[in-house]
Amino acid sequence: MGQFFEDLRYALRRLRNAPRFTTAAILTLALGIGVSTASFTLFHGMLLKSLPVPEPKQLYRIGDTFNSGNYIGSPQSNGDFDLFSSSLYEHLRNATPEFQDLAATQSGTARFAVKRGQDPAKMLDVAYVSGSYFNTLGVSAHLGKVFSDADDSLAAPPIAVLSYEGWRSDFGEDQSIVGSTLLIQSHPVVIAGVAQRGFFGDRISETPPAIWIPLSSVQYIDEKESNRMRPEINWLWLVGRVRPGVDVALLQNKLSADLRQWLSTVPYYQRPEEKSGLPKQHVILVPAANGIQDMTEDYGAGLKLLMLLSFLVLLVACGNIANLMLVRGAARQPEISLRVALGAPRARILRQILTEGLLLSCFGGAAGIVLAWLGTYAILRLGFPEATAFPVQAAPSVPVLAFALLATVLTGLLFSAAPARLSMLSQPVHAMRGYLHFTVRLSPLPQKILLVLQAALSVVLICVAALAARSLHNLAHQQLGFATENRYVMRFDDQSTGLTDGDRPELYRKIQARLSKLGGVASVGLTSFGPYEHAVMQGCVVVIGDAGKPEARTCGVNRNQINAQYLDTMGVPILQGRNFNDTDTATSPPVTVVSRAFATQVFANQNPLGKHVADESDPSHVLQIVGISGDVKIDAHLPVLASFYKPITQLLFPDNPFIIQSIVVHFRNQPEDPEGMIRRALAQVDPNLAISNPRPMDSQIAGTLGQERLIADLALIFAILAVILASIGLYGVTSYIAIQRTHEIAIRIALGSTRFGIIRFVLRAVMGQIGLGILLGIPLALTAGYQMKEQLYQLRWYDPAGLILAILVLALCSISAELIPARRAASIDPMKVLRTE
Fold first, then answer.
1. What's the pTM value of the predicted model, to 2 decimals?
2. Which of 629, 689, 624 is CA-nearest to residue 650?
3. If phi over 0 gives left and psi between -120 and 50 gives alpha, with beta otherwise, what is residue 33?
4. Which residue numbers in the chain have pLDDT < 50?
5. Pick from 135, 130, 137: which is nearest to 152 by CA?
6. Disulfide engineering: 456 pairs with which of 536, 606, 624, 777, CB 3.0-4.6 Å?
7. Are 254 and 95 in contact (CB under 8 A)?
8. How far apart are CA 15 and CA 662, in angstroms?
C-alpha cells in the first residue's frame, strides 16, 4: 500500500506538471465515457430496468406482441393471442391456480376530462385496470389505499387511485385529497388513495397514467365504450405473478388449451370465419419483470443503435488517449531507460504507468458521469418533449454507476496498454546511445493500428449519421396531402360538460361559430381524428349493389367523421364531385366523400360517383358517394390509407351518436397569441370544456417523429465527436512520427529537401493508415446500414452519398490535423539537431 500511494502521488505530480495534456485527456475521456453512460442510462431505464415491485422476476405476461385498442375476435391471424376480453380474463384467472394472482390492464391509456371542485377541467391520462392489479404487482399506497377486487364491480361505488407523479404535478401534493371527489367525464369518482412513489404503471410510457380506475367503471365513465365488456371484444393485456416452482412451459400449454376451450363456448367464435381458426389459437408467456415493454417495438432498435454508436465513440476516445499517451511515453524513454540502468524494477515502472492511466481515467470518468447526467436530461427533453412524468430518470442509478465504473477501469487499462508495452522495450543501453537513436528504432505498429481503428470507426459514425438524417428528412418532407401553414390543432372532450348526445350538435355548432368569429380565422374544421394524432379508425366498407345488397367488401379503410368545412380547412382538394354542404342534414339522403386511394382500391377503373357504400359496422346506413378528395397522409410511418368520410350532420342523432374530438383552426395570417385566443373562445362556449394544448400543425407533425429525430441528432453529435477525437489523435500520431524522425528530417533538410518535400514526407507516413482505415470502414458502414434498414424511410441501406461524405469529411479533417505537426517538422533547424547528436 505504501508503494501504491507513492505511485499515486507520482502520477498526480506528473499530471499536474502537464496541464494541457491532462486537460485534453480528461475532456476526451469525459466525452467518451459520458456519451456511453448517457446512452446506457436510457437503454437500462427503458429496456432493462425492473418494475419497482417485490419479486419482479415472478411476473409473466400472457402474450408476446403489442396490439392495442379494441379488437373483435382473434387479434392475430396466426392464432397468437395477446389481447383478451374481460370475460376471458375472468375465466383464465379462475382456472389458473398456478398464478398467485392475475391482473388485467388496458392496452394503452385514454385521455379523459378530469375536474376537481371549481378548478378548470383538464385532460389527463387514465387507465382501466382490474381490481387485482395492485395486489398482483405488490404496489402499496403512499396515501389512503389502493383498490381491490371488491372495488371492481358494478355494485361498488366508483373510485380511483392517483399515481404519485399525477398527485404531485396535477393536484399539487394535496394531503387531503383522499376521500375527495373528481369528475371524470362529468361522472363523480371518489379518490381512494395515491400509489407509492416511483410506480408509473406496468410499462414504460411517454404518458404514464395519472389515474387508475377499475375495469367495471367502463360502463359508468365512458358510455360509448360500454360494449367493451362483450366477450368477443379484446382490449386487455394480462400480467400474472407465477407461484414459485411452477413450470412456465407447462403453464403456457395449459393456458392455450383453456383459451381454445373457452373460445369454443362463445357464440361469436362459432362463425365460420372464426371457427376454422380455433385449433391454432394459443398464448405465449413472456417474462414481465421489466413490465409490458410495448415501447420496445418503437424504441428498442433505436436504443440499441445508440448504445452501439456511443461504444464506438468511446473506442475512438480510447484510441485518441492512447495515441497521446504514446507521444508522452516516447518523450519519457530516456528517463525510463536511465531508471532501468539504475536498477528500477520493470514491474514498478509498469505499475506507475498503469496507475497514471487509471488515475486519468478516473478523473475522466467522474467528469463523464456529470456529463452523462446532463446529456441524459437533454436527450429526454429532446426525445420526449411533451412527457411530464417520464419514468426514466436522468440521475444515474446504481447499475448505471456500475457501468460507468466498469467503462472507466477498462478504458484506463485499454489506453495504458500501448505506453506500458513501449516502456517494456526500454534498455539501459538506450540511455547511453541517445533518445533519438532509440525512438527511430521503435516500431510504430501500435500507433498505426489505433489510427486505422479511429479512421474506420469515424467512417461508420458519419455514414450512420447521414443515413439517420436523410431518413428523417424523408419522413418530415413527404407529401402530406394537406396544408400545415397557419393551422392550429387541438383535442377536446365534451363529456366534461355533462351534455347528452342530443346536445352535441348544438355544442359543435357553437364551437365552429365562436372560433370562426376570431380575428384572422379563415375556417374551422371539426373531426373525430385529425392527421398525425396517433389514432387511426380502420374498418371494413361494403359496396351496395343496385339490388340493395352488399357486393364487395374492402377492409383497412380509414373511417372519419367531419364537418363540411374540414377538408377546406385542411387544404384537401375535391378532385371530383362536391364537398359536404348545408343541405346534408339528418333528414336528407346520406352521403359520403371518399379519397382517391379509396376510389382506386374499391372501384378500380370505375367512376365511384353515385355509387353506394356502407360501413360494415352499420350496414343499414347506406351512403351515396358525392365526391372524391385528395389523399391525406394521416401518419408519417403508414402508407396512404383509403379514407371514407361521413358528415357529422347526418350522424348526430340519438340512435347513432358519434363523438367529435379534434378541432383545426386555419388563420389567414399568424396571430400574436393563437393559443390564448382559442382558449378564451372555447371557454366562452363552455367553461367546463376540457381541451389539450392548441399547437401548430407543424409542431404536431414534428412531435410524431421524436424517435427518428432523437436518433438522427445523437448520431450526428456522435459522428462530430468521433471526427474531432480522431483528428486530435491523428495530430498526436503525426507529432509522434515527426519526433521519432527528427534526426532523419534534419539530414534531409541538410541535404537540400524543400519545405514542401518534408511536409509531404511526414504526411505520407500516416496517410496510408488513414486510407486503410477508410477502406476498412466502408464494409463496416455498409453492415451498420444493413442493420438499420428497418428504420430507414424511403432510403436504401447502401448509401453512396453517405460513404462519399464520410470519406471527404474524414480526409479533410485528417489533412488539417496533420498539417500542423508536418509544418512544424519542416521548420526545424538541422544544425541544432545534428549538433546534439
1. 0.76
2. 624
3. alpha
4. 431-432, 435-443, 653-657
5. 130
6. 777
7. no
8. 63
